[in-house]
Amino acid sequence: MRPTIEGLLSLLFPRVCGVCGRVLVEGEQTMCVSCRVFFPLTRFEERPDWNGLTEKLMTLKAPVERTAAYFFYQRRSPYSRLIQQMKYNHAPSLGRGLMREYAARLRDCGFFDGIDALVPVPLSLGKHIMRGYNQSYYLARGVADVTGLPIIEALRAGRHGSQTRLSASERLANARGIYSACPEALAGVSHLLLIDDIVTTGATACACLEALHQAAPGIRLSVLALASTRLQ
User: What's the gap between Cα 158 and its chain centre?
Assistant: First the structure.
């Protein structure tokens, strides 16, 4: 009975490529083979201690040990649809699947060695209610699927507007007043991995790192994002 039901569901709701929309065939996951060929991988995991993402997240207030991001984000690229669908089209499972793929690669190269827990970048209460979910939490679940690491929701986000029209320095100044961390939630954690969806200027991630460092000054910090813009 189960195969019959699954077959019927696949006919009614076929799995499609998150980039081009083509119906996926057996063996394809998230993207079709054609889109996989040109998937803009960052390969940051080859230099987790110093890469384009590390440079964006340089902050004396909260030093970062290692960073990685799965692919490069460009607004007009067809691959930007992966982020748009995950964040705005009620498809958090798409991000979870992509992060699960990347986490398997990172596990094999030792990226998670010594990390105790995962903390997703939070949404403000208003945004969470409007969207219905926090996409970064689903990304953290993708990592947890592979590593078994616990997810700690130690960060809180206050109410804030869009930062799209702000400069990089303005974004960071604004973001520093948005995020706070709970010291009690960080008790016993020595190395924390911050999970973000996309790093553009790095303002949000830096503000979260600084909040975590302020709450637990001795904590070690690393960052994993699904996507990152290229360093300008």
Answer: 20
